[in-house]
Specification:
Elements: H1 2-39, H2 43-68, H3 72-99, H4 107-117, H5 124-127
Amino acid sequence: MTGEIVVQGNDMGKLTKIVKSLRLIRLVRIIKLYKYIDKSGSDAEEARLREATKLAQSANEAMLKRELEPSRLGKALSDVLTRRLIIGVLVMLMALPAITYSSSDISHQYGLRKLFWFGRSNCHGKANDPLTF
């Protein structure tokens, strides 16, 4: 039980680190924007600044996407787990009808069959013989 909590805590710790680093990167970009705005007033520099921010944003998005993308091992484990789950469900669907208990009462059929065969011999040749009882 404690191992699960620690694993969840580690995952949450990694996620908070990623979020904090993204916030720091955004803050640095905003500071750079203010510096560029104070220094320059021309349109060419503003266009260059927009290009730089677009490049920084695309780089940050690529980094975040790469970190959140599952690894090959994760994909393989997910596929194996999915296959096992599907096989387990199919086995249960086939096995449950064979092992379930049905409470049907067939005692009247059993009794009628016993009464029908009462007094008759299992040997066909001896049943027609008048000397045998």
